[in-house]
Write a structure and sequence with these properties.
Chain lengths: ~350, ~170
């Protein structure tokens, strides 16, 4: 079971080369297939995730959640997806048409590109960049532009306010997010994600970096615009934030991208702090799925437990609490590494 | 023509077209978004030159942060119809064209007459590590002074905008 997907990839490359293709083109086609797999997994996964979100929220709020379609309401999201696919695509007349149309595409493309570097199992990485962590951070910063495009082009005050809020929030929380990952990078001594996973073969980095894990988790919640930090789409005041004017599949693309980002950030957390794909008995690709799902469950748990906080509290929390804490964590980690080396413990 | 030439031509075309779009679009927000595309194209060119770290810095700093700053600044100061916010400079058309032509000719002559030394060494295996040693080892003082300068600039900007000592 362990090398199931690697075997499939190998067989595929062998078959392509037997057709007379050169190794470069076979790799190129394999890359396209890998991207298509990521897109497919993400799309199907989001159906499960939305169902899970509804069930978890129902459980936390002492209700049943979806329970009509299929066993435990499992087909509810499929019905929703069909509804969204068949809905009329309405574009208001006063919108900026080009930007309005490209914003969801840009958002989902950036979200999918994050999966390029995430190790999804032993040797199961699309590209093993030597600056994988940095790639993840810099690509994630691009999604602000997509939200800004959506908010501005909608020509609607709620959309623009939502976009402004999410941009302000994402830019300020990006800094503690990056700084919290720095502690792990300093211990592992590498920006390559496979090295970071390999460095955790004995002990997970959450043991050395509990503060970094907590700051990462809080900052990631804000980066994802999820509750309790979902000010950008606070329903009571902004209808749906930047997505107010979107309908049907275009709106669904935003929704898909948000959940895609959620999976990516959770997979990153399990790679950086929880040992990635390493674990006993089960195959490696199953371990990363289990760890990612546990982290996503905690994200949902927090979303449905805490009330939304105010925008100015949100910003001052980032700049006055998270940023100093993550900076102090870097200093402590640096001193700790120095002391460890000086004592000859590592 | 091999694959890398093809990739270069496509990325260069996208970059240059987007850069022309920055000047050409009537709507200044379209210009700003076109600038983002141009930044991304430049990042792609860096990737092709095996300068992955530089390319990612380009994406993080320019496409992710500077462009958001530009768009925010545009939104704050824009007070007229967005469709006419980036006026065409029809009056300066000929002078602008002449200067552009002169710059192109001058640069072309300079590039053509230079003998470019070609390095025979191979690419460094770990460019990030080498960069880190230089920035935080050999040139750490210059690096920190630059960081301090930026901090002073930010503090100065905040004091200019909000005023100092007028409220508690």
């Amino acid at each position: 079971m362990e090398s199931l997907f690697l075997d499939i990839a190998q067989t595929l490359t062998g078959w392509l080369q037997s057709l007379g293709l050169s190794a470069v083109w076979a790799d190129f086609i394999l890359l396209i297939i890998q991207f298509a797999c990521v897109a497919g997994i993400v799309t199907i996964n989001v159906i499960i995730l939305i169902w899970l979100e509804r069930k978890v929220s129902g459980f936390i709020q002492l209700r049943l959640g979806p329970n009509r379609l299929g066993p435990w309401g499992a087909f509810q999201t499929i019905a929703d997806a069909i509804k969204l696919l068949t809905k009329e695509d309405i574009i208001p007349t006063r919108t900026d048409k080009w930007i309005f149309r490209t914003a969801p595409l840009f958002f989902i493309t950036v979200a999918m590109m994050l999966y390029l570097v995430i190790p999804m199992g032993d040797g199961m990485q699309i590209v093993d960049l030597n600056i994988g962590v940095f790639y993840f951070i810099s690509l994630a910063s691009l999604s602000t532009i997509a939200l800004l495009m959506a908010g501005w082009s909608s020509n609607n005050k709620w959309s623009l306010l939502g976009a402004m809020r999410s941009v302000a929030q994402m830019i300020s929380y990006e800094i503690p997010l990056t700084f919290s990952l720095l502690g792990v990078i300093m211990i592992a001594g590498s920006l390559r994600l496979s090295d970071i996973v390999a460095a955790q073969s004995n002990i997970w980095f959450i043991v050395f970096q509990p503060v970094a894990f907590i700051t990462y988790f809080i900052a990631a919640t804000a980066e994802l615009n999820r509750g309790p930090f979902d000010m950008p789409e606070a329903e009571q005041e902004l209808t749906a934030g930047a997505y107010t004017e979107y309908t049907g599949m275009r709106w669904a693309l935003f929704f898909l991208a948000e959940y895609t980002n959620l999976v990516a950030v959770s997979a990153m957390a399990s790679t950086m702090f929880l040992g990635g794909w390493q674990g006993p008995w089960l195959p490696s690709w199953l371990w990363i799925i289990i760890k990612t799902y546990i982290i996503m469950f905690v994200f949902m748990w927090i979303k449905w437990t805490f009330p939304r906080i105010r925008m100015d509290h949100l910003m001052s929390f980032s700049w006055k609490v998270l940023l100093p804490v993550s900076l102090a964590n870097i200093v402590v980690t640096g001193v700790g590494i120095y002391v460890f080396k000086w004592m000859g413990w590592c | 023509m091999n694959l890398s030439d093809l990739v270069f031509i496509v990325t260069a075309l996208i970059t240059v077209t987007a850069a022309v779009g920055v000047v050409g679009f009537k709507n200044i927000v379209h210009s700003a978004l076109s600038l983002v595309l141009s930044f991304l194209g430049v990042a792609a060119l860096y990737f092709q030159l095996q300068a992955g770290f530089l390319g990612l810095v380009q994406i993080l700093v320019y496409a992710g942060a500077v462009s958001v700053l530009i768009i925010f600044a545009i939104m704050l100061v824009m007070d007229k119809d967005p469709d006419e916010s980036n006026r065409s400079h029809a009056k300066q058309k000929y002078w602008g064209g002449l200067i552009a032509l002169l710059v192109t000719l001058g640069l072309g002559a300079a590039i053509g007459s230079t003998i470019w030394p070609q390095s025979s060494g191979s690419l460094p295996e770990d460019s990030v590590g080498a960069l880190a040693t230089l920035l935080l080892g050999d040139y750490v003082v210059a690096f920190e002074v630059a960081a301090l300068l930026l901090l002073v600039a930010v503090v100065g900007a905040i004091i200019l905008a909000k005023g100092a000592g007028e409220h508690d």
